[in-house]
Amino acid sequence: SQSEVARVQQLSLAELKSLVQSRSWHKAAGGDISLAGPGRSREAIAADVLRKLEESQATSASCDDTSPPSASAAAAQVLQWLSDSVRTPCSKTTRWGSWQIPLRPVYRYKGLEISGEPCVSVVTSHQALAPQDLHLGALPACAQHAERNVDRVKGLEVMMLSGTSRPPSSGSIVGLKGRLGQDGLREWLMGVTTSEETKRLIREAKDDEVLWEVRPRRGGNSLTFLGSRLQPKLTASNTE
Hints:
Blueprint: H1 2-10, H2 13-22, H3 42-62, H4 71-85, E1 92-96, E2 99-114, E3 117-128, H5 150-153, E4 157-160, E5 169-179, H6 185-192, H7 196-204, E6 210-216, E7 223-226, E8 230-232, H8 236-239
Helix pairs in contact: 1-3, 2-3
């Protein structure tokens, strides 16, 4: 739709890459969109995203008839439902700096026919799960040396840990607010924060804690977060 096209055209490079990964369109998940390499500019990835949206709309339109799914498609749907209904335990780990990162397998099933026989293909990728002690406050480039690395950190995809029972939401770094003990920032942040648990964390944080400005992926105004409440997303774009 026109609204989807307009939205895609407004997304940053980091947001486009995040969208591609969430839809499993990237090559690591069996898709056909490369996220890195020569020529993989924002415009090139945006063009690929628009192409995939058009393909999805065409597929949806072709499925509007009442014909039943093929045996292979039905089997793939059942397998996908079973896979999505169970949280698969982590099967391996990898290292990211000094952190041991657990990897959880993710399965995608698709029905197809080979020589007239119904078959189901499965593509396996792995989701990296960040440990609790992996946050921007623990990364020297984002903590001790934050001021000299602002341009490098901008665009970094993060999970915002709210300090409440709500699940974390995602966003991207858009700027550096300052350090908590500077220019009354601690008092200002306490004044705009509604969560009592978050207020406790702000009171207990050190004066040199870095405050980052984050633009939520869902849209809206940027939010200010303690570096220790921002977890870097372990994605291909963040690795770059």
